[in-house]
Amino acid sequence: MRAAVVILAGLLLALQYRLWFGDGGFVENRRLQARVGELRSQVAEQEEGNRALEAEVLDLKRNLAAVEERARRDLGMIRRGEIYVMVVPQ
Q1: What's the pLDDT tens digit per position in 30-64?
Q2: Could you list the residue ranges forming a coiled coil in this record (predicted)?
Q3: What is d(CA 50, CA 83) in angstroms, rounded to the nearest whole number?
Q4: Domain ranges of the chain
């Protein structure tokens, strides 16, 4: 009888160990849940950035003034007859 109790207690401990620390156990589950939270926040940030880029693309497709403004700012575009003045900070 005593041997059966010891064997059953050993089995119970082995199963509990596996439940808590084994593959798919409680500890791994908590770690994966934390990782899912991190990834969800990254996805939300990237979706926000994508929406901003999509709005910018639509603006550039529909509005030639936006294209010209961007060309002036980023590429230094000037039209014929315009004079380019660069102000150098001191």
Answers
A1: 999 999 999 999 999 999 999 999 999 999 999 99
A2: 29-70
A3: 37
A4: 2-75
